[in-house]
Write a structure and sequence with these properties.
Order of helices and strands: HEEEHEHEEEHHHEHEHHEHEEEEE
CATH architecture of the largest domain: Alpha-Beta Complex
Oligomer: single chain
Keywords: ATP-binding, Kinase, Magnesium, Metal-binding, Nucleotide-binding, Thiamine biosynthesis, Transferase
Function: Catalyzes the ATP-dependent phosphorylation of thiamine-monophosphate (TMP) to form thiamine-pyrophosphate (TPP), the active form of vitamin B1.
Number of strands: 15
Distance between the termini: 58 Å
GO molecular function, one term: thiamine-phosphate kinase activity
Strand order of the largest sheet: 8-10-7-11-9-12-13
Bound molecules: magnesium ion
Largest sheet: 7 strands, mixed
Number of helices: 10
CATH superfamily of the largest domain: PurM-like C-terminal domain
Catalytic activity: thiamine phosphate + ATP = thiamine diphosphate + ADP
Radius of gyration: 21 Å
InterPro entries: PurM-like_C_sf, PurM-like_N, PurM-like_N_sf, ThiL-like
Shape: globular
Length: 334
């Protein structure tokens, strides 16, 4: 790109928000220099979104800017980190000022909400692609990981499941799979990173992951890392008003909704394991702090040496009866 074009882009990304929040040197030198507070460790994550692969080419630039940061902040939340800084590498086919302005509006609205400062980046010309790297801090040795789920822990999720996957399916499908697709597309494109809950889970949860690839796939990461089995109770899967409305009006069956909830991706909720008594103390702490955050109980962690499951780490029940998940649906409901 020409020098002039870089100037234009610089204008959008270099904000006059001063040097604060541990930023010794921000945008404008070869590197950013950041101060990590004593007693903390740095948590770093990176995600790339490529046009035509991770988002539709005609995506609303506001929502793209928002989501590019949101998926990174969701990873920080899953480790219990406090989000602090981000860098952004953006490849653009051309300099489209209205598009850039909207992209930045989405990115910075979310950044400001969680006091995340943009500390660097890179701009190149080519097919549209966005890479964000987010950095956070976590008290030393206390990051939440995928590897310490304990036998008899409750499996909890921070919000409704399946809406994002339904939004994607609605966008990809030629036929109408829901009566009103807007709430599902909103869920897909405007996910809320669960940073506040993630920080509260430190000292309480035994393991945690954010749901990007779907409940069963992401839970399997915890089960493998922790060497555990688990059972999920279908009747306890939290379904949104939007999904319940589609079920009531006959556009979606309950078993289809469960299938989206279990195998669909893009929920960006936190999935965590926690002992019964720590869950009680977490709920008390949340209510003392006036935080109305969801912790839906959806299943239980099992001992692999004493498990009713045969040949699989993850099983499903409906009203205490085992059900089998098939790629195309639930045996139980055929
Ligand atoms: Mg993740």
């Amino acid at each position: 790109m020409s020098e002039g074009e870089f100037d234009i882009i610089d204008r959008y990304f270099k904000r006059l928000n001063g040097l604060e929040s541990g930023v010794v040197i921000g945008i404008g030198d070869d590197c950013a220099i950041l101060d990590i507070p004593a007693g903390h460790q740095l948590a770093v994550t990176t995600d790339t979104l490529v046009s035509g692969v991770h988002f539709f080419e005609d995506v609303d630039p506001y929502r793209l800017g928002y989501k590019a940061l949101a998926v990174n902040l969701s990873d920080l939340a899953a480790m219990g980190a406090t989000a602090k800084w981000a860098s952004l590498a953006i490849t653009l086919p051309d300099v489209n000022e209205p598009w850039l302005a909207e992209f930045c509006r989405g990115f910075f609205e979310l950044a400001d909400k969680y006091q995340v400062q943009l500390v660097g980046g890179d701009t190149t010309k080519g097919p549209l692609s966005i890479t964000v790297s987010a950095k956070g801090i976590v008290p030393t040795g206390q990051a939440l990981t995928r590897s310490h789920a304990q036998v008899d822990d409750v499996i909890c999720v921070s919000g409704y499941l399946g809406d994002g996957a339904l939004g994607l399916a609605a966008k990809l499908s030629d036929t109408k799979i829901v009566a009103d697709q807007q709430p599902f597309i909103d869920a897909l494109e405007l996910t809320e990173p669960r940073l506040t809950l993630g920080q509260q889970l430190i000292d309480h949860a035994s393991s945690c992951i954010d749901l990007s690839d779907g409940l069963s796939q992401d839970l399997m990461h915890i089960l493998k890392k922790s060497d555990r089995h688990a059972q999920l109770h279908l009747e306890h899967l939290p379904l949104s008003e939007a999904i319940l409305t589609e079920i009531d009006s006959g556009h979606l069956s309950l078993s289809e909704a469960w299938q989206y909830a279990v195998t669909g991706g893009d929920d960006y909720e936190l999935l965590f394991t926690i002992s019964k008594h720590k869950l009680a103390s977490l709920r008390m702490r949340l209510s003392e702090q006036g935080l109305s955050l969801n912790c839906f109980e959806i299943g239980v962690i099992l001992d692999p040496n004493n498990s009713p499951l045969t040949g699989e780490r993850l099983g499903f029940t409906h009203l205490q009866q085992p059900v089998t998940l098939k790629k195309t649906g639930w045996d139980h409901f055929k």
